[in-house]
Amino acid sequence: MFPRxxxxxxxxxxxxxxxxxxxxxxxxxSSSLIQSLFPGALLNAIMHIFSFRVSDVLVCxxxxxxxxxxxxxxxxxxxxxxxxxxxxxAVRISRNRINNAFLLTDETLEFLNIxxxxxxxxxxxxxxxxxxFGVVIGVVGVGIIALLISSFIQKRRKKGVTExxxxxxxxxxxxxxxxxxxxxxxxADGVNRGFVGDIPFTKL
Amino acid sequence: MSAKxxxxxxxxxxxxxxxxxxxxxxxxxxxxxxLTCIGFAVGLGNVWRFPYLCQIYGGGxxxxxxxxxxxxxxxxxxxxxxAIGQRLRMGSIGVWNSISPYLGGVGMASMVVSFLVGMxxxxxxxxxxxxxxxxxxxxxxxxxxxxxxxxxxxxxxxxSSPVNYFWYRETLNITPNIETSGSLQWWLVICLxxxxxxxxxxxxxxxxxxxxxxxxxxxFPYLVLTxxxxxxxxxxxAMTGLKYLFxxxxxxxxxxxxxxxxxxxxxxxxxxxFGGLIAFSSYNPQKNNCEQDxxxxxxxNSATSIYASIPIFAILGxxxxxxxxxxxxxxxxxxxxxxNMGDQNxxxxxxxxxxxxxxxxxxxxxxxxxxxxxxxxxxxxxxASGTGLAFIVFTEAVIKMPGSQVWSVLFFIMxxxxxxxxxxxxxxxxxxxxxxxxxxxxxIPKEIFTGFMCLVYFIFSFIFALGSGNxxxxxxxxxxxxxxxxxxxxxxxxxxxYVYGINRFSDDIEWMTGRRPNIFWxxxxxVISPLMLLVVLLAYVVIQAMQELTxxxxxxxxxxxxxxxxxxxxxxxxxxxxxxxxxxxxxIPLVALYRFVHFLKKRVERLRAPSFYENEGYVSDM
Lengths: 204, 622
Known about the structure:
heterodimer; A: mainly alpha; two-stranded antiparallel ribbon; 43% helix; rod-shaped; B: mainly alpha; phosphoprotein (chain A); glycoprotein (chain A); transmembrane (chain A); Collectrin-like domain-containing protein (chain A)
């Protein structure tokens, strides 16, 4: 979308040596100084783009941090510069790529007056919290239903036991004493076994 | 003389009969009862109110008024409630009706307060659930501001902070003032539904299910607190926080406000006067040592408060330290950029020396940078209590800890179980009196009735899911959960000491526990505790009345945003505040008056009644 950027940096030798001299009055040609000052990637990047040798790099206005100005020329018409706003937009969009090329971050590579592009948070289809909510409410719902069913069954069983006792009484011989009816244990020979256990103990 | 088989069958028949006529349910074992009582007493306040009070009232020195209040006010009242419930075997309304029909209003007031508190307390649990659901994301949603237009953050978030934005906008969607109600926030409604469903599952069969749930809800917070303690003590800056918390400032004890806050904190922390403790102990066998129970519950509650404040303050110290370092790093970046220095030349350790050097060499340039003054003490002083501590301060601390999701999940589950166990007491404080008064038709099974109760609560708590819900919650919290409880407790202790009679009460206790209460308890019940309660009540009412009725609103369009906008309550809201405070208290004299009028009517009727020998049968004939 944007034309290839041609850097014109104050210490390159793309322009002729005289121009360099006007840009860089106290130029020092020292390849070791360059290599100790620059991170390797920056150097490789510049070298790769401009295909010149280390000896062509002249250093001036040394500061403790590496900082430089750059302008971008139109590839068809090298004397025309691309507007600052366009360059800013380009940098904003490709900020991540530029950072990665130099192995730097937004904190260590700063473009003045260009705030860092913010990472858009990854949007997932269903928000994850709804999934957790679904799990929790599902478990709780199952619990409620289980408890309700179990209490319903318990009640049924209790009702069944009391009814069953009364039914027992109707079928077999019943002894109704003191308002509480309980079935009488009858053996096969029709003898009331209710007093069997007591017989050895009753003494006349 | 009957055979064993018939005897057994007869016994079960008898038991069936008595169950259907309503034998009182009882605890499966003593542990369940104790855990439920401890869970009721140990609640959110132990974690987010006590550490705050400790911090603002001079650290270690605050423990003195706190423990004095526990011994002379908390424990006697606790013992009294547990004993009276156990002896009379009824909920709050039944108990006070038994002591004197004129005091039935005390029980009704307890029930009304329990109902109102239950409404808003579960809303806090719904918020906790919301944060819990969001803790399963990476990164945590309150870590960074949402992005607007790819190039800038949302303005409201940028001006305040991501945690503030997440709490006030994405959770509450709060309106700028209480008059603007806003709409019902659907996400809060489903969190409320979840919270009430969980409460229902545990509450479905009354104490039968509560007792079993208490095994987890009462013990889990201690597990999490221990895990946090171990983790927090290894964080950088933890010791700063702890030193700050526990360094005693003895002069602060001269301020009477400290003593008042200690007394009210103990009182509210033990969940007295809700009727919940009376309800729980009414399901005990009568021969049970309630003195031991009271001492155990009271001491464990206070010990938990102190134990909880250690990891909380270690983590707050870590957060303050972290903020301090961030502040310094920002300044360092500005200086490095302005003076074109090498990266890592200025570090946190040599920042001060560099700053003085640069200030002397180029003061105007340094001044133009508008560096923030970074003071560790200011960050430590940023104290918070209540929801602010849990949802703003603590969440900010959690994102700085490695493995934030785990800590966030643990923290919010702990808060949920703390609140859930307190909710049980609130609900029992309403259910038990209703069951005792036989207001529940016997054809409706208990499960359906508890479900109906939860549904009613759920619908009422929609108020707190509105845009202005947080403002209403603050009102309910300040006006319902304070003065009425003090009034009820005062009447409770005077009723037992002077209407029921301490001697009669001591006889009952001797029958229940085998030992008469000693001089310490007698002195407290007769004189010290009622006096203390009266003083605390009057002081509290005076302070509340003197306070201007204002509240802090979150208004993004406020001039001084992100500061809170302090607004006065409109007239109708003031009226509601007064109503909330006075209606439960008014019930006490109202019921007494009603009973008295009834008594007078009966007296008058009896006086006017014809004598036995007069036969009205022939009047019309004559």
